[in-house]
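Dear colleague,

Thank you for sharing your sequence with our group. We've completed the structure prediction you requested, and as agreed, I am returning the results in plain text so they can be pasted directly into your records. Please verify that the sequence below matches your submission; if there's any discrepancy, let me know and we will rerun it promptly.
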Amino acid sequence: MQIIPKTNFDFVGNRWKLFAVSIALVAGSVVALLTKGIVYGIDFTGGTAIQVTFERPIGLGEVRKALEGAGAPDAALQSFAKTNTFSMRLKSAEQSATDIEKTLAAVQREVGANKFRVESQEYVGPAVGRHLYRQAMWAVILSLLGIVVYIAFRFENPIWGLAGVVALGHDVLATVGLFAVTGCEVDLLIVSALLTIAGYSINDTIVIFDRMREVMKLYRHEPLDVIINRSINETLSRTVITNGTVFTVVIILFLLGGKVIHNFAMAMVFGAAVGTYSTIAIASPMVYEWYFRTRKASATAQLARTGGRARKA
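Please find the predicted structure tokens below.
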């Protein structure tokens, strides 16, 4: 389906402007990570997740005030839409069962006659948190490594794989930077969002790379920048349809999904946007830049060899 009329944007010609935007985005993410850091959820730090249901309606602000009065001001609080159920995440990994009971009793005193019952209570120890953190890091690293190997094998050139991984690494780093800036918690659900963003980004990149390979075979004598621009412009309609559909869904989740999936939806919204950008603005132009520099270096070396023979003659 051709939604967008045939375009002829010079993506390769403007690659340094696009690279500058990406460098600024990544630099901002790195600064935010170094200065503010990441707020890890109890999946990684350890703590207790408690789900409670109140007898009568109560506001999120009232429950938060009750937690502060109970001595748990740093507790993460989420509400479930159209219910009186709340999720309280107490981050201290050193609290005993007695400490938790005292905190809940203090919350009950703060809210007064509006009784609540505990629906579920889950404890994550610090050792388990560290284990989950290591597992999450290995999941990300092995995923990136697998993507490099797959693309390098599929396109018979590791540079294509490296360009794809740089693009998706840009997406993941920018998304993590967003969480550092906003102070939202990073837990296992966010790690799954990051892996989803990586897979989504590389899939879009592969579509354009496939088209580039086809055009290279059809137009062998055309300059590489013309081939890459043609490939991106010819797949632009497909990119808009696919990415626009994904973006619409995650925007709806972000706006209407409620607190429980708010952070996940935020990661997906931002990741979908930067993923679309990086495929067009980073991955393909990087392939061109590598070919351009290697061919230029080869031509310079050839000229030097030829000139040397001429001077000897």
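Summary note from our side: Residues 145 and 160 are 13 Å apart (CA to CA).

Kind regards,
the structure core
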